[in-house]
Fold these 4 entries.
Entry 1:
Amino acid sequence: MKQIQIPVQITEVEDPAELSSQEQELIAFSRNMTEKAYAPYSGFFVGAALLLENGEIVKGSNQENAAYPSGLCAERVAVFSASANFPGVRIKTIAISARSQKNKFDHPVSPCGACRQVLLEYEFNQKEPIRLLLSGISGKIYMVEKVRDLLPLSFTADDLG
Ligand code: THU
């Protein structure tokens, strides 16, 4: 028997000025996108903004539905839109932000498991990491260098052969 350690590195950014101006702009877009979320059931508003390697920025917000599972998270709205409109164009960075109507949620949002899996598919295909910038509506930012860091022991197309 042996233990396997899988290290994950997350950079906590207290001062956004330490990020590039492009990254600061992306975070501002994701925070603004929380205003556009359609989340009448959860009252939890999520925004996402993706920077593509061609310089395009693609945005998304969560979209809910009276038939709950029919809704979609902000990250997937954004990444599916990017792939639909710019197929094959690499994703450099995704900023994700959230705020809640119900509590004082103000810490870096953590993408759900399904969004991690979906983001990993694109990272796997493009063979270059997608940087994540996670935040609340204000305050500190968590920077994660690649989706794979958020999904250790992941299942990818490699496993299918
Ligand atoms: N949500 C997202 O959009 N992204 C996440 O990473 C976490 C959850 C949405 C889904 C649903 O509309 C609401 O937040 C509550 O789960």
Note: The first helix runs from residue 21 to 33.
Entry 2:
Amino acid sequence: MDTQPATGKIVTLTSHTLQEQAELGSQATGDLTLLLTAIQTTCKTIAMNVRRARLLDLIGAAGTANKTGDDQKKLDILSNEIMVNTLRQSGKTAVMVSEEDEEAIIVEDMYRGKYAVVFDPLDGSSNIDAGVNIGTIFGVYKVEGQPSVEAVLKPGREMVVAGYCMYGSSSNLVISTGKGVNGYTLDNGIGEFILTHPDIRIPSRGKIYSFNEGNALFFDEPTKKYLESIKYPSNNKPYSARYIGSMVADVHRTLLYGGIFGYPADKKSKSGKLRLLYEGYPMAYLVEQAGGLAIDGKGNILDIVPTQIHQRTGIFLGSKEDVEDVAKFYKEA
Ligand code: AHG
Ligand code: MN
Ligand code: MN
């Protein structure tokens, strides 16, 4: 596919979504397309603030903690405000759940639409001050009936859209509407996300593992044994280690190169560290749509039925065969 702006044959996220909408014929109302436009706007706005963070004095701690206990950075708070306000004004949301807000937000009547959006406005906050890649993660559910928190207490498999935007050397929006995964790169010149990674497929096996091994002291036996198996393999071809510490960046690399990303539940963080609704589900959804797999050790992440909006999960995701290897160690245990 030709994606060069100079040719005039560019495919933007908006034109691509409109094309998908047209293929659905009269069933499609265009509401989801408009919601995706609002999400794009949030990503562009956050991307601009990330790029200029040092110049705009947006670096550093805000001196506050969110209600779920994480220290907040200035950019965490700003990104959350951008998301909440832009999504509310789109008129397409009924419920929002953000990592930065303790309670689910029920959108007031005059702005109410029919979608629920769960999001991590800024992922990888510990990397902000060093200029390392960070991102935004989101998932969308359709709301049936009266909007309430119940709209998002559903397995990730029921999401209608999942995606992330990574702010790095370029801004990359990676998204799935349940028909595979596409990646778009922001062309700052025209302010549009251009289709640059059509139909992303994750390799069935990779050569890279991505864990915070600083937690190894607390890892359970299956995790320890699995890591041993890829570091000291019988074929003398150990995996390479890559760990950025921004889930968005670690998952992005895993989608493109293959391999495995893991943040397991362990003796210290008994339920894991990462959040199920707005970190686990969207990433698991994308990985599965790209042909990979995501598990918590016991089962598929996307089948977990959540009971709380901020609940945590252990997670292993990536190339199907690599994640199946982890599952074998858990089965044996
Ligand atoms: P957030 O910045 O949204 O709180 O998320 C941070 C997460 C995730 O991005 C990353 O995978 C993980 O925390 C890194 O944790 P460690 O620093 O414990 O390795
Ligand atoms: Mn996060
Ligand atoms: Mn965050």
Note: The CA atoms of residues 231 and 237 lie 8 Å apart.
Entry 3:
Amino acid sequence: MLSDTELNVVVLGLGYIGLPTAAVIARTGAKVLGVDVTESVVETVNSGRVHIEEVDLDGLVSGVVARGALRASAQIAPADVFVIAVPTPFAADHAPDITYVLQAATTIAAVLKAGDTIILESTSPVGTTERVRDLLAQLRPDLRVPGRAGEAADVAIAYCPERVLPGRILVELIDNDRVIGGITPRCARKALTFYRRFVRGACVTTTAPAAEMTKLTENAFRDVNIAFANELSLVADTMGVDVWEVIRLANRHPRVNILQPGPGVGGHCIAVDPWFLVHAAPDHTPLIRTARLVNDGKTDHVIAQASAMIEARPDAPVACLGLAFKANIDDFRESPALKVAQALAQRYGERVRIVEPYASTLPAPFDGTGATLIDIDTAIEGCPIMIVLVDHDVFRSVPVEERSDKLVLDTRGIWPDQPAAARQTESLRLVG
Ligand code: SAJ
């Protein structure tokens, strides 16, 4: 990997992607400035600490901050490369909201100079990188932007989506292949030179719109495949068949690879990005749209199943295991587990106990519900009903002897040895 102490890099947005990216770039010897609008994030990073839980990130950040290779600020400064890693949420009608991306571009425009490279990493609707280019052209008429006058341009602009999996971010930042879409081929080559500093995977160049659509496609692919698994779980429930066993058996076919059902799809990516495709081509996306509805519908189904179970045992305390959107992380964004637990807490109040090893207090949605946060041992001792919402390792490790007398709704299939009579399925709705 290349190392160049002269290179100055600004990363805009110090969230789940921006902070690890900034730290990894700083490790290559570049001088990195992380820019974030949240004062507490700036202070935390400058003190060498992290505000997000991610494997090995704390040690990396404290090291690069101590060496002076990474610092954070609310103010931007001139640099050679600008990486935009800000959120792209959607509005109530599922229309993508690229306000933060355009704000970041506006911030960059103030310090942009000839020779600089701007790379957008945020998941974005197709056409966003060109909109960034148009905005920069408008704000900085003194600079030639790419794609307007052939290859001659003063700055390079490219789209390169992040593809890292929470929980494995530092590994995947280095090892995953990268798709680099330039506004022009020359822009793509400049961005490629930058990624070569820290990426061990292949760096493949293409156009900006193709790279933008590639990112959306990857997450829509996963959403559609999870929807298939979730739909199967509903079918299997009505037949009294164990869906986990059916999937295990079907996956023994050499060309079948079904994903896992769960309480719905969460996180800030897979539950969001497919809508960008649906919004862009509503007449051509019945499958992608339906997958989203199936996955969201699964959460409602789990709430109904859990409620039936809880009402069949009046007064018994209920343990909801997990709030995170997936196993072994502290991220509760768009979490179906949180939605289920919140709905149950609103309905059944203090009967509901939450077990979440990644939370020290209950998040705001539980305020005023009467629900309490307890640890797994207390749950095993005092809760005859258990709703498994997240497959955290600590839940997976509970042996059958400690839960054989419980009535369990296992939405993640982590306890296949749970006695059938104590396992809730649609067909066993009134057991208990
Ligand atoms: N899930 C299931 N069943 C499965 C797999 C996942 O219900 O078989 C659920 C999870 O529990 C979770 C949600 O789906 O609620 C998403 O989890 P995930 O592990 O599939 O993905 P994310 O959101 O953590 O990260 C995804 C990744 N995209 C793909 O795998 C195509 C990651 O590579 C992206 O970088 C990330 O989105 C992103 O930032 O876009």
Note: Residues 426-432 have pLDDT under 50 and may be disordered.
Entry 4:
Amino acid sequence: MVKRWMAHILFLLFVTGIECIPRKFPSDFKFGVGTSAYQIEGAWTEDHKSESIWEHYIHSNPKVIADGSNADVACDSYHKYEEDVEMLKNLGVDHYRFSISWPRILPNGTANHVNQNGVQYYRNLIKLLKKNKIEPMVTLYHWDLPQVLQEQGGFASEKLVKWFTDYARLCFKLFGKDVKTWITFNEPKQICLFGYGLGVFAPALNKSGELDYLCAYNLLKAHAEAWHIYNNEFRPHQKGRISMVVEFSWHEPLLPDVPAFEEAAISNLEFMAGIYVNPLYRGDWPEIVKAKVAHNSRKEGKDRSRLPEFSTEEINQIKGTCDFLAVNFYTSFLVYPSVTPQPEMYSARDAGVSSYQPWYWEEAKSVWLKVTPWGFKRLLKYLKDTYDNPEIIITENGISDGGELDDDLRISYMQQHLNAILEAIWEYGVNVSGYTVWSLMDSFEWLDGYQSRFGLYHVDFSDPRRQRTMKASARYYKDIIKNRSLDKTSGYLTCSLE
Ligand code: GBH
């Protein structure tokens, strides 16, 4: 709450032309950290867990991972979750975002056989979190589909809706007494575009412009159905909330104020993220996406659009299935209109744009990640304006390096991105209610293996005990959480004369 005396001071400064931003986060702002099952748990065949699409993909193509590694053991959190909770306690976080491994709970994919060992693992973890007053924020799907379901079509099959909703209902029933924040899917873009369009993530299918759209269509229907199940059968007594996590990069027009470039930036935002978020708020794909795919499909001589069409019934079912907007943010791009975007990336071709990151933007260890806090601030304003001022929770934000304990780059990245949130809150009135650092600890970073490290804690992957060590960034974040303020030394306000 902004106190009355603070409002007076702000007003005085406003009329004198001095701009001030409070350094404090709103008193009910929540801080957390995140991980995902496949990236940390290990124990990939233990206690009847079955194979996931990522295990299948990597075991059959070890060369796709930069350092030839895999996540068979990873951080070994299946055995070391008590240590993980100790680390969370030490940081003082309000919430811990983790994911449930579908093949660990349902080894044959479907709900007709529940693996009690798998269930017990999550029960133990959740119980320990509650005991330490850490709120679990649980993702049902962070990319690890049971391989048996992939063999029946995975996200390209309509059956996904039933498979997923049976699994979701089971999780609500098993864990919903203690879990009040649910995420259905993590980053549909990575699931659909990377997995079914570009063929770089499991299941490595590459029918861009068709399978990726079909995947999005089935995924959105599965999400909506799960939301309704929660809303009707569980929310009345469990009283939690549920959403889907979408990764937003910021897309900045290469030439600002030039209409064709402005349109290219919007087009990319809609094709890369709006395509998943617009249905949640309005029931249907963004207009620009529908129009451009239909236009290109006609040009290719097809008699219908490559983009599946939602029926009126589906639109009504999907609309409004979003209790808060869950956003992952890492980086930004400069965008320009182009008739020859990456040839293999249909959605970029449909969008009619290309994008790049200039060499002089500060770099992380991951090639795709450049430091752009200004883009984060613009994105937050855009989300407020586009989706009618929703509550926003940042469900991931972080940076990779080589795993140094004195990780200045991470500290500066966090400082700048938290500052962007403060500015978005106090300058634009964006309703951001929480922030989640990716990640609690170094873990298996998909195609990069263990080469790119995102952790606040270092993990020694050559040590069978997978020793965890606090990095400087962990101490920095711990201080922020304790003070609920970005920089306690600069007091309540930082001011500048405009
Ligand atoms: C998140 O995705 C994931 O949710 C999380 O699991 C992951 O650990 C974290 O980010 C860090 O990557 O290799 O050039 O083809 C963020 C979005 C998706 C961006 C994959 C980079 C790979 C680009 N990322 N993408 S490339």
Note: The radius of gyration is 22 Å.
